[in-house]
User: Fold these one by one.
Assistant:
Number 1:
Amino acid sequence: MPNKLDFIKYCSLVLVYMRDKLNKYINTLADGILYVAINNDYSNQNIRHKSLAVASAVAMGGCDILQYRARNISYHKMLNEAKSIGKICAENNIPFLINNHIDLALDVQADGVHLSLQDVSVKHTRAILGADKLIGLTLRSVSDAQNIEISTLEMLDYISIANVFATQSDRTSVLPIGLKKLADMVAIIKEKTSNLTIVAIGGIDETNMVQVLACGVKAVSVIGAVSQAQKPAAACKRLKKIILKTLKAKPLKTRRA
């Protein structure tokens, strides 16, 4: 049996490891990043590639963060799929986030969750997950950006602004905001906090990504631009190249050696 001093040392090492891991991921968010969301809605017959295939491809293609979006499947299948994708992310040193399902994030030991304003509150989510997990939140309008409290922003690791353009990956009835409102929302958020990464999402692809980045965001999230591509890994590499070139950023050095 370890003595009390050994146990304290062990706990200290674990805390240092968790802190370093979180700091690494926060640094990841601070750079120009490509955030890939995987939508596993098997009721959509237009999906070209299944979730695991996309995860493997984008891990090789330069994805910086991966989010798993589970729809229309049982929790058991969701759990198994998330575990497999989480393993791919861990092997490639990529932060792995779960969309909406806090219980699933806990069960698969994901690196964090992504929320909408209709989900569990950010305060409650942070209380459940603790300080060592990433939490992101989607805002969908200028009024959302105006109304969100600074205290809420301080508990987040990033804000996602959606949808910039029309997209088949999101079935909400909310109209796309367009580039002008994207720029307005970015400005509003930056007035409230200068340290929070802002991610743009919704209908973004190789043809419009430069315009999106010109609105002040330094991170872009894609779904169909990768999952619907004939070769997801190649599409991921092209998108990442556009981000790095536009922002004059350097590739992240968090990949597995």
Number 2:
Amino acid sequence: MKQIASVVAALVLVVSPSLAESAEPAGMRVRISFPAAVRAEAVTGRVYVALNRLDAPATGRGGGGPIQQAGPTGAPLFGLNVESLKPGAFAEIDGTVFGHPVASLDDIPKGEYLVQAFVNVYTKFERADGRTVWLHMDQGEGQNWRRSPGNLFSTPKKVVFDPRAKDAKARILDLVCDQVIPPIPAIADTEYVKRLKFKSTILSKWWGQPIYLGAGGASPSTWARPCCCRRTTRSTPA
């Protein structure tokens, strides 16, 4: 019995290290943060990471890195909701976070990629019906979060992506969103194009936030010209 116990103990000593190694979770982990220099307040919203192969063809969505190239036939995009994420802290996207058109980071083949992170900042709406919701506030960009002023993004980074790398540190990718999208400059009126922006009292009361509406109008190029075809009437003495 003592010999059997000794053999079992030896096997445990030999097998335990390999069990410890296999217990290490595989797959990539992308940690997304932002510095206080670009935003001092905590963020409730959604963070994203997108990646594209270095030799990937253009998707027709323009430049700006993988975030701008993300789509059903473009760069894979993965997103995660965050609540009160403070500057310097990070949100982690791993293989359990759903993406599209690739479902998981663990399904990304090994290779060289261009990777970019993004932070979509939400606004708190205390609605008139008593409910409180967090949503993206339009900043004049037409509800396009990828170009909305105030949102944060990182510089596209070239990395070697290997979800099956043996070194756990090689499967951790830190991305810092240290850039902020600037306000959209106002477009000046012209002689024939006029724009109007005003605050909606009804919508502002309902949403609990200032809500603005805008409109634009274009007039024909001849609208201000004096008419040369007016009829002139004369009275003739009887």
Number 3:
Amino acid sequence: MRSFFGYLVSITLLALCILLIMYIFIPSHVGQSKYLSPLPDFLTVGVNKQVTLLDFWSPIVEKFQAEASPPTFTARAVLLYNLSTNKSMYSYQSSKRLPMASLTKIMTAIVALENKRHDDRYVVRAENLVGEDSMGVLPGEIFSLEELLYGLMLPSGNDAAEVIASNYVGGRKAFIDAMNDKVKAMGLDDTHFSNPSGLQGDGQQYTTALDLLVITKYALDNFPVFRKIVSTYEHTLPATGTHQSYTLYNETNLLTTYPGVKGVKTGYTPEAGMCLITLLEYKGHSIVGILLNSENRREEMKHFLDFSLLSLKITPPSHQ
């Protein structure tokens, strides 16, 4: 019996010695609760604040068999995608990195909507007035986010983009960081933003037609207000106690001339050329067309929309 108690005491003392050695020689932070996640750091909320949900969607790009011949075009990248069947209808250099001009503003809208100010008051500063395309805001005016989104998406207001970014918690740079964090959270590797408007001159900015498809689908699926705004041709913001009245017109130039078109966004800078993302909802099909660096985006998009419908054996609508 004594030997048993002696053995028990020895084991207890040995255990205490081991704990003492661990306490002395192992850094204290190792003892804190720290678990290894199966996700990479950029997909964890602790590292990337723009991770709101993990719902990756990857387009299926494969050779589409169509009786109709694809139209001729000048664009450096083309993607025609049927969201209803989740299949591509035409792809040309859709994975090529290219500048995107004001197509940037789709991500600007996403980050703004997911990080809306609690007071919904966005103050205009003099430094926000940049670029030729503008909403026309004045320093000192105060807008709601939805009002600014109309100015961002309809006339492609660079000033609206800058107002949104400068009113973000942490300021403009933090907003741009959030834009880049968001594309990582969406699983995209070929997109980078250097400002909230898409204007050239602030550093490297690029995307691909495939990444733009994912970004556009995300905005359309998750934000009814975004879908409503981009499908609006004309919108008036009545005067309030904090800003004058504004009448805004949508630059997406097929919205009133091609039946079924519901937006989404134009873009142009000298480096990006003419860019266009178009959503067509027609005869039960939802089709997104993307053109990057086209010499005639309006005509080329019309031809691609016609091609997409003919490929589905649907007669295209009469259009201008």
Number 4:
Amino acid sequence: MDFVKDRQHYIDRYDVLTIEECLQWIEIAKKSGRNVREIQKIEKPGNVGALIDLSLYFKKGESYRNKETTIEKWINKDKLHQETYDNAKEPSNIFCDHCNYAMEMKDKSLHWSWEDNPKILFLFECPNCNKRKGVFDSGEVFKHESICPKCESILKSKHTKKGEVLTIIENCKKCGYEYKDVIDFEADEKRSKAEEVRRQYLLDNFRQDYCLTKEEGDHYIEHQAGMDRLSKMMEDKRQRMKIQNIKKPEH
């Protein structure tokens, strides 16, 4: 399994977030009437008002300022996942809990990827009775126990699969609570493809409007640094004048 993607993958990921944020802000601004001139009928929403344009200038600039840092953070996290996955050692001497046969490793996957120390779960299958068992690279056996939200008893779980649809039913023997979850893998795949099309549409149509180039971004950062220096100079001057006024002798 490959966790680390080419750099363009992360650039596109970041740019989509920037575009979505800008488009969302424009819609909010338009609804709240924050633009300072009448909204004109235009093909793209980048020129709907001076105030919106000014706010977008800062939004795009600050997005550029944080871009490289964020992308490096994403890459480093995926590198950690890749290293963890590649270097995980398969647990040995795993036997079936039902017939005591030696089990065979069939698959492994990354768990708790949002944490600093993710784990690798190995899936074992018994060649005799086909029962399965999950074991982490630490040797800990995976246990999935759902708790009843009404009486806090352990729920009984049943899984059935028909075609590309997986149905999970959990019920409580004590109070009668039941939970049903239906996972349609085919529908999920269609939604995933539709999302990819949507993201590509945003990149193709709005990247040039809301994602600054290196030249534009560096100019923004340099300009903001100059404004910060000017602001500090003015504040220092104001403080000096204030001190001088305090020391000025009374007549």
